[in-house]
Amino acid sequence: MTTYLVSRHAGAVEWMNFMGHHYDYHLHHLSDYKKLEIGDVVIGSLPINIVAELNKRGIAYFHLSIDIPESLRGVELSAHLLSFLDARLERYEVIQTAY
Prior knowledge:
It contains three helices and five strands. By secondary structure, the protein is an alpha/beta fold. The termini are far apart.
């Protein structure tokens, strides 16, 4: 089992380390998720359709959830600010169905 942190934000990486959350590899972008294996774990803020594909392949997904006020949208967030905003890892399991 390998754990991947997928984020282009330095503050998210700093927060993960500050909080003691384990990951094996940090990626700025998940370009080829088809190379991941059953039992792997992905942490990040990925689009829901990719999360569904990961789950279908037996890969767990933990979302870096943050309740960001409108005034901070588009601002790079530091590890300290992420903690202040109660950032947390939440596991999501997504099933894709047709509409």
